[in-house]
Amino acid sequence: MSRTPARIDVINQGVVSCRRCPRLVAWREEVALKKRSSFAEQEYWGRPVPGFGDPEARLLVVGLAPAAHGANRTGRMFTGDRSGDWLYKALHRAGYANQAESSFRNDGLTLSDCYITAAVRCAPPENNPTPTERDTCRGFLEDELEVLARIRVMVALGKFAFDQLWRILQHRGEELPSPRTRFSHGSEVEIRPGLSLLASFHPSQQNTFTGKLTEEMFDHVWARARELVTRA
Questions:
Q1: What is the CATH number of the domain that holds 218?
Q2: How far apart are CA 116 and CA 59, in angstroms?
Q3: How many C-beta neighbours within 10 Å does residue 48 have?
């Protein structure tokens, strides 16, 4: 019997109880206390946000950090904001999610063969973690990569996640391309046979409202991920 679910639970417990970054602790708790007026009646999560999905997944999705009034409110990655709306709709179209909506933590959404996490687990001011905060949080992602042993494809949503994955892979001694692959939407790196890294623009409002990221562009990434997962 697989031990992955139990080991993921241990990692997630460590995530939720973490208080190592004073600035992030203060900010996430302040946001949870003050709230946005449209969510005034809701109880905010206000803690670090654990990963979410299928512990036997072959596809790993890595974002930047929880949104202040999204995952920091709901307690689930990419849930309750427009970035999450885009992501889960795309994953649903690609067959990785059972529904296209992501409103709250217990809304019935489940992922199949997909696990979602982030480079930083607390909502940062202005969505901008410091290098120290990024490095302090890195161990959680490293632990997930160790435990999620079936991962064949990693999709980095945005340059921040792409760079963090690159650092981790480099530290693990993976043979990465030289010169280093530059982040761009749709860029692809074969780390080794059976393990690939894909890059996508983050489905932020800044990118989707301006047309920098379209549904067609986003769907192409998940179609390619599916192709690589199936091939591995």
A1: 3.40.470.10
A2: 9
A3: 29
Residue 193 belongs to what domain range? 4-231
Convert the pLDDT of each residue in 98-145 to its tens digit: 999 999 999 999 999 999 999 999 999 999 999 999 999 999 999 999
Q: Global pTM?
A: 0.96
Distance CA 212, CA 201 (A): 8
User: Two tokens at 88?
Assistant: 């889960």
Q: How far apart are CA 198 and CA 74, in angstroms?
A: 27
- Is residue 1 packed enough to be buried (19+ CB in 10 Å), middle (13-18) or exposed (0-12)? exposed
Q: For 35, left (φ over 0), alpha (ψ -120 to 50), or beta?
A: left
Of 151, 143, 140, residue with least CA distance to 59:
151
Can you tell me whether residue 59 is helix, strand or coil? strand
